[in-house]
Amino acid sequence: MENPKMYKKPGKEEVSPDLPKDALFETLSRLDEKYNLILDNMDVAMTLVDAHSLSRLDGNFYFHKTLGYSSEEFHEVQPEDILVNPESNQLAEARPEILQTGQARYRTQLKKKDGSVLEFLFVSRLVTINGQDCILSTGQNITDQLKAEAERDAALEQLENKVMERTQALSDKTRSLIQEVHKRQQAEQELSRKNVSLEEMNTALRVMLRKLDEEKSEIEENIVANVKGLIDPYLSQLKKSSLNESQQALIQVIESNLKEVVAPNMHRMFNDAYSVFTPREIQVANLVKVGKSTKEIAGLLNASTGTVEHHRKNIRKKLGLNAKGVNLRSYLLSKDNLPGLNAL
After folding, report:
1. Which residues lie in coiled coils (predicted)?
2. Do 49 and 134 meet the contact criterion of CB atoms below 8 Å apart?
């Protein structure tokens, strides 16, 4: 005997139209075992309801198992037992579209026996079984898929937040670096301006120093010219006149000092000498340099020989010659060795 067909395409599908209406369940139960086996082992929920009353006629094994019911228990289950919100029946809402177009697609939440909720995506089609309009719905459990999508969306959102945070941090760092670069550029520009200003000042100072050197040379030349033109002639006349020994010694000291004044190294300062020696010690040192003895110095300065020896001793001490067997006159004449009498 040929197996009855549940579906016929296109249009509405019929199952053994010659069977009486009250034999519908008996006809379905006598379907070939291999087709029942296929339907029950499909990973798709299948349910059959009356198209007008929406009373359930049957459901496959996967649907029972997924909702946690046995086949016997499932026959006693009412729609309100598995609908999360009985007042919002998506199949009832989709029925007008199914009756008009022959099919509809919708999502719905179903409650398991243990109270947990599953999300299903159903495709419902209008079929005719033995002259009775029925709705055959096939549904896919998309709970895990939605959970995975939610986790993915959460991970993406978290990643986006991290990217935004990193981007903001990078943007802040970039702005900070730009500001730092700008500050450094300003500092470099300011330093460049200061360098230019310093270079200009250095140039001006070099010009001033050169001018001072020129003026100094001119002053030195004037001093030399004045000494030779205004003083030397009179000293020559004095030396030719009748002078006693003391006067001649003084003339020698004057000539020696004038030579020091007009010497090429006249720029050496007298201040060091005056800061180290007393005026009388400077006089004694000058007379020692020109070769005068202690007795001659005493006569020229109207002082005792003991006083002159005391001054000579102080001079040697200040020159660091006390413990050295160095002739004082020889040392004074070696101007490069004198810390305080170079200009004497």
Report:
1. 147-222
2. yes
